[in-house]
UniProtKB/TrEMBL annotation:
Organism: Pedobacter steynii
Subcellular compartments: Cell outer membrane
Domain TonB-dependent receptor-like beta-barrel: 258-728
Major site of localization recorded for this protein: membrane
Domain TonB-dependent receptor plug: 126-227
GO BP terms in the entry: siderophore transmembrane transport
Name of the protein described by the UniProt record: Iron complex outermembrane recepter protein
One function term, GO molecular function aspect: siderophore uptake transmembrane transporter activity
Keywords: Cell outer membrane, Membrane, Signal, TonB box, Transmembrane, Transmembrane beta strand, Transport
Length: 766
């Protein structure tokens, strides 16, 4: 621990005295034109992600990238609406003037991905399945949170708890099997829990990259199912100060959400600040409002940093604060919610924004220092982060919490990228984390514990003219110590000292078999150590409908997944096809075996009977695939279609695995007319078909299929300060009553959210 603190101090000193890295300033100039007409493109964005360097073209289509190294190879991308995203490797030691002709296209493709590989690369050289969602689509989705906004990506689902809480699942795997990256650091916020989602301000996400499949090679434990990488806004070009204000309102639960952001770049000194607030009452379906299912959220985050010729160093910090109402019981036989006296709760009462008991309060603090130092022609990337998660659940009193968990996490990630000539790209890295959790309440679900883990990897990529191959290996070691606890002579937790270690690897390829047609394949192994709840849980906490008992004898999970994909990208049509087979050894899951129950008595003397869920292990298979197709037979008309299916098999008896999402088919027709005075105008209609989930574990029930109708309209207005965006999004417009198979409220007879219309506006300034 002291060593970690020492390293943090050294890095902070380096950050604030970065002039010690003094080097000759360099710049790259160029011109961006239309490939057909040779006309200059005004306002195109040029970006080098590994340097956090960005600029835009002027009225002549010319640009200048300032404060960048004088040597090194980096991937540069150029974006402009109506044109295919252009990406190319540039050698700063030999190139200082560029001329780029953009190819017009109604489909912006060749997205640069960062999650899938240590080296930034476009889709043609990336062997892993990665999907990117930009800021505009996140806003237009009308989601109540970030996971809700990406839940219709093929292969992505959500474990939902009403309108407030969503946890991501990727290809049937969720919780601690999906890793969330924020500010370059892994989020550590009691991910094992059902009753809270990703603890990050959704307004701060400029782009979300979703890696589908095992990513343990690059991230270690907990990336067995995939990674969700939340990337913040681009810093503005030197000499620019700007900002924006976003606000929206949702009709279903009265969700008002607003965010104010300001940022600037003063000759390489970059800074950003954001404040956001959300407030909602209980969500509704048909003519029913679910009482005490509202929430409020207040977030603060900021960044200060330096972009210089030696690289960059950015210090980010944030505070995420939310209060979420917890629903204890479902409706009665008449479909009404009643209070403790058996009286029907009226709609007006259910729509009160003041939360009642029980509710939970979460504070999550995060500070991360991200740097990239250019050492000759190589690069040293570092991320050091501290997170404090304080989670409280209030049951009998709003003054004293029952459950009070306090988790401190220290993480570090150091990677070195060797000099390369564009063909061979080698990298090595070391990552680690120290955690300490303390119970400060009078109720206990998990014990006090501390954990320490470290991992190291080597990675090699070989680029060819029409593709690339990559290979890598990794070693991980993790130690978890759970503390013994007795209360009033009753044993609550037995102490344990567990150790886990694993060797994992990955090999993959991407090859352009024909023009615009790319074949991808990847074979990778994954690793996940059991989380603290699986090892030691012993109790029930508010917001769940079960009593959980952990097993300290659990072994680590390991997996072997094969992934094969085919992608075609042309001017007016794209399609993608992915198939995968994932075998998981020692797969951990909770089950209600032999219909075991436990009686609990509250302070009022009332007895509640809960099903007991115990954690066990088995060999499991997850087999499935995703398909997507986007037609643009008419330039302004888009017809997007996708399909996703996953089948989970318990190899012990060939029975279904629990918590597997149903197959889904999503279709969207989008019309983008050219309207004088407006930009980015669109009208869209979407239909989502979720099929019946007839494969379920013994303690689950069948979930019927359903169809949802969505629609939206929006436009951008050009102003002197930038584009003013307006949008209206409607979800479940037919107000369909349905259960999602992964809804945690389904066992209580509470339906998913009904009709919702969201009105939004984004206003630029300065």
């Amino acid at each position: 621990m002291k060593k970690i603190h020492l390293v943090l101090v050294v890095l902070l000193y380096t950050f604030f005295s970065a002039s010690s890295f003094a080097a000759d300033l360099s710049e790259v100039k160029g011109k961006i034109t239309d490939g057909s007409t040779q006309e200059p493109l005004v306002g195109a964005t040029i970006y080098i992600s590994d340097l956090k360097a960005v600029t835009t073209t002027n009225s002549k289509g010319e640009f200048t990238l300032k404060n960048i190294p004088s040597k090194g190879r980096f991937l540069m991308e150029v974006r402009f609406v109506g044109y295919k995203t252009h990406s190319q490797m540039v050698d700063l030691a030999t190139i200082n003037t560029l001329s780029i002709a953009m190819e017009s296209s109604v489909i912006e493709s060749a997205e640069v991905v960062i999650t899938g590989s240590p080296f930034s690369s476009n889709n043609k050289t990336n062997s892993l399945s990665v999907v990117t969602v930009g800021k505009d689509k996140l806003a237009q989705a009308g989601g109540t949170n970030l996971v809700d906004a990406i839940s219709r990506i093929p292969g992505v689902s959500q474990v939902s708890t009403g309108g407030a809480i969503s946890k991501p699942t990727i290809r049937g795997l969720g919780y601690n099997r999906v890793l969330t990256m924020v500010d370059g650091a892994r989020e550590e916020a009691q991910q094992w829990g059902d009753e809270h989602g990703i603890e990050v301000d959704q307004f701060s996400a400029a782009r979300v990259e979703i890696l589908k499949g095992p990513a343990s090679l690059l991230y270690g434990s907990d990336a067995l199912g995939g990674v969700i990488n939340i990337i913040d806004d681009l810093v503005p070009p030197p000499g620019v100060f700007n900002g924006d204000f976003t606000t929206s309102y949702g009709t279903n639960n009265g969700l008002s959400a607003s965010s104010l952001m300001m940022q600037g770049n003063d000759n390489g000194f970059v800074y950003r600040g954001r404040v956001s607030y959300k407030n909602a009452y209980g969500f509704a379906y048909k003519n029913t409002t679910v009482p005490n299912s509202g929430f409020n959220e207040f977030n603060l985050n900021g960044m200060v940093g330096l972009n210089k010729s030696w690289g960059y160093s950015h210090l980010t910090f944030s505070r995420f604060h939310t209060n979420i109402g917890l629903v204890e019981d479902g409706p009665n036989e008449d479909g009404n919610f009643v209070n403790e006296d058996g009286e029907v709760i009226t709609k007006a009462e259910a729509q009160q924004r003041r939360l009642g008991l029980p509710f939970q309060n979460i504070n999550h603090y995060r500070a991360a220092l991200n740097s990239n130092f250019i050492l000759g022609k190589g690069q040293l990337k570092t991320t050091f982060a501290f997170q404090r998660n304080m989670r409280k659940e209030f049951e009998e009193s709003a003054a004293e919490p029952g459950l009070n968990l306090n988790l401190n996490s220290y993480t570090y990630d150091v990677k070195y990228y060797f000099p390369n000539a564009g063909k061979w790209e080698p990298a090595i890295g070391v990552q680690g984390m120290y955690q300490k959790n303390v119970n400060k309440g009078d109720e206990f679900l998990i014990p006090d514990y501390n954990s320490n883990n470290i991992g190291a990897f080597v990675y090699l990529k070989r680029n060819f003219e029409k593709g690339a191959v990559n290979i890598g290996a990794r070693y991980d070691y993790k130690k978890v110590n759970g503390q013994d606890l007795s209360v009033d002579g009753e044993q609550v937790f037995n102490g344990f000292d567990n150790k886990f270690s694993n060797v994992s690897g990955s090999i993959g390829f991407a090859y352009e078999v024909a023009k615009n047609l790319v074949l991808k394949g990847n074979a990778g192994s994954g690793f996940r150590a059991p989380n603290i709840a699986e090892l030691a849980a012993n109790g029930r906490h508010e917001g769940t409908f079960r009593y959980e008992i952990g097993n300290s004898k659990l072994k680590q999970e390991t997996s072997l997944q094969f992934d094969l994909g085919l992608e075609y990208t042309a001017k007016y049509v794209t399609f993608g096809l992915n198939a995968y087979a994932n075998r998981i050894f020692n797969y951990i899951y909770p089950g209600n075996f032999n219909k075991e129950t436990k009686d609990l008595t509250n302070e009022a003397g009332e007895v509640e009977t809960l099903p007991v869920y115990r954690f066990v292990q088995t060999k499991a298979d997850l087999i499935g695939g995703e398909a997507s197709m986007d037609f643009h037979l008419v330039k302004s008309l888009h017809f997007e279609n996708s399909f996703a299916y996953v089948r989970g098999i318990n190899r012990a008896d060939d029975s279904p695995l629990p918590f597997i999402p149903a197959a889904s088919i999503n279709n969207e027709l989008r019309f983008e007319p050219n309207i004088k005075g407006l930009a980015g105008s669109y009208v869209k209609v979407g239909v989502s078909n979720v099929l019946k989930q007839a494969r379920f574990d013994s303690f689950e029930t069948q979930t019927d299929g359903y169809t949802l109708l969505d629609a939206g309209i929006g436009a951008s207005i050009n102003t002197k300060k930038g584009k003013l965006n307006l949008w209206v999004t409607g979800q479940n417009l037919l107000d369909k009553k349905y259960y999602n198979h992964l809804s945690r409220y389904k066992p209580a007879g509470i339906y998913n959210t009904g009709r919702n219309v969201t009105f939004g506006i984004n206003v630029p300034f300065m």
